[in-house]
Design a protein that fits this description.
142 residues, 4 helices, 0% strand
C-alpha cells in the first residue's frame, strides 16, 4: 500500500471525472452566469475538458515524482500525457453508454491537449523546484 499511496489523488480525480461523465446529458447544469461572458471567446465544454485532464496529468506526474524523486521528468510527463489521452478515450467511450451523452472526437482531443499541458506544466514546475534545491518530496522507496 505504501508504494501506491501517491496514486490515491489520481484515483480520486479519476473517480470525479468518471462521476461527471456519468451524469445524463439532459441533467447537466447550465454554466454559471459569471462565465457567460466567456462563451463568445471560449467553448466552455472544451475548456472544462482541458482543466479536468490537465489536473489528471499533473497528479500523475506528481505521483511518479513523489514515488521516485530522481525520475526523468520528461519521461514522467510523456507517460502522464499518454495516460491522460488513454483515459480520455475510455471516458468518451463510456459516454456512449450514458443517456443524453455522446462520444466526441473533439472532446477526446481536448482531453489530450489538457493532459499534455498539465503534464508539461507539472514537469516544468518540478524541474524549477529541483534547480532551486527545493525538492522536499518523498524519499525513494522500492
Amino acid at each position: 500500500m505504501n508504494r501506491f499511496r501517491h496514486w490515491i489523488p489520481v484515483a480520486g480525480w479519476s473517480a470525479m471525472i468518471f462521476g461527471l461523465s456519468s451524469i445524463p446529458g439532459y441533467d447537466l447544469p447550465p454554466p454559471p452566469s459569471f462565465l457567460e461572458y466567456l462563451q463568445g471567446f471560449v467553448q466552455l465544454d472544451k475548456f472544462v475538458h482541458h482543466l479536468l485532464f490537465a489536473g489528471f496529468a499533473w497528479l500523475c506526474v506528481r505521483a511518479m515524482v513523489m514515488h521516485r524523486p530522481a525520475r526523468n521528468l520528461a519521461g514522467a510527463a510523456l507517460f502522464a500525457a499518454l495516460l491522460a489521452s488513454a483515459f480520455g478515450a475510455t471516458d468518451e467511450w463510456h459516454q456512449i453508454l450514458t443517456p443524453g451523452r455522446s462520444c466526441d472526437f473533439f472532446d477526446w482531443f481536448s482531453d489530450t491537449v489538457g493532459g499534455v499541458l498539465g503534464a508539461s506544466l507539472a514537469a516544468l514546475a518540478y524541474a524549477v523546484l529541483r534547480r532551486m534545491g527545493r525538492f522536499p518530496f518523498a524519499r525513494e522507496t522500492s
